């Protein structure tokens, strides 16, 4: 069950990087972030900015794992970046062991994850990126993701430069 969403305007790349910094401050081991949005909405850009905010070296490429399905990234906390676009069933998603990755203390970030939220485990934050207007919606599904959404909003507001 998703709760009422909160919204963050994303008029430019700088705003998306601010959102990534806010996420980096709020995420904890075992959290799940399910990304949704049209092709080209900026899901992978957000993941890349988040990884950089969590200490990933610029020399490490962050690309959507469209064909490998999951890529583990050495951030703090570590990220399991999944792309579920090509999957056709919940059973396919379950075979990836996404909940086990969370149980190991990884943050699960699943592009196209909203289609397979059950396979991603309970209490996930759905982050949708809309294009008209360009903004993020944060929809928690339980107590931890509600806390996560609240913390992201607080950090995002605090990171706002004067005049923004």
Structure at a glance:
The protein has 164 residues and is α/β, with parallel strands linked by helices.
Low-confidence stretches: none
The CATH architecture comes to: 3-Layer(aba) Sandwich
**What is the share of helical residues?**
25-40%
Q: How many strands, which pairing sense, and closed or not: the largest β-sheet?
A: 7 strands, mixed
The end-to-end distance, rounded to whole angstroms, is 33 Å
Q: And the CATH topology? A: Rossmann fold
**Which H/E pattern describes the elements?**
EHEHEEHHEHEEH
Name of the CATH first level: Alpha Beta
Q: How many domains?
A: 1
Annotation field: number of helices: 6
Q: For this structure, what is the CATH homologous superfamily?
A: P-loop containing nucleotide triphosphate hydrolases
Strand order of the largest sheet: 1-7-6-2-5-4-3
Structural class, judged by helices and strands?
A: alpha/beta
What does this structure look like?
Helices cover 34% and strands 23% of the residues. With 164 residues, it is of the alpha/beta class. It has one domain (6-158): P-loop containing nucleotide triphosphate hydrolases (Rossmann fold). It has a seven-stranded mixed beta sheet with strand order 1-7-6-2-5-4-3. The longest helix has 16 residues, at 143-158. It starts with 5 loop residues before the first strand and ends in a 6-residue tail after the last helix.
């Amino acid at each position: 069950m998703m709760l009422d969403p909160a919204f963050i305007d994303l008029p430019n790349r700088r705003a998306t990087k601010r959102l990534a910094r806010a996420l980096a401050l709020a995420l904890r081991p075992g959290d799940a972030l399910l990304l949704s949005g049209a092709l080209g909405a900026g899901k992978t850009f957000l993941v890349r900015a988040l990884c950089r905010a969590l200490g990933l070296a610029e020399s490490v490429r962050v690309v959507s794992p469209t064909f490998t399905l999951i890529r583990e990234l050495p951030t703090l906390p570590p990220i399991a970046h999944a792309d579920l676009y090509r999957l056709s069933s919940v059973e396919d998603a379950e075979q990836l062991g996404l909940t086990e990755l969370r149980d190991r203390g990884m943050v699960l970030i699943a592009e196209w994850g909203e289609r397979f939220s059950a396979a991603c485990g309970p209490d996930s934050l759905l982050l949708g990126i809309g294009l008209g207007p360009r903004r993020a919606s944060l929809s928690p599904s339980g107590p931890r993701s509600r806390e996560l959404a609240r913390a992201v909003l607080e950090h995002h507001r605090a990171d706002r430069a004067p005049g923004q």
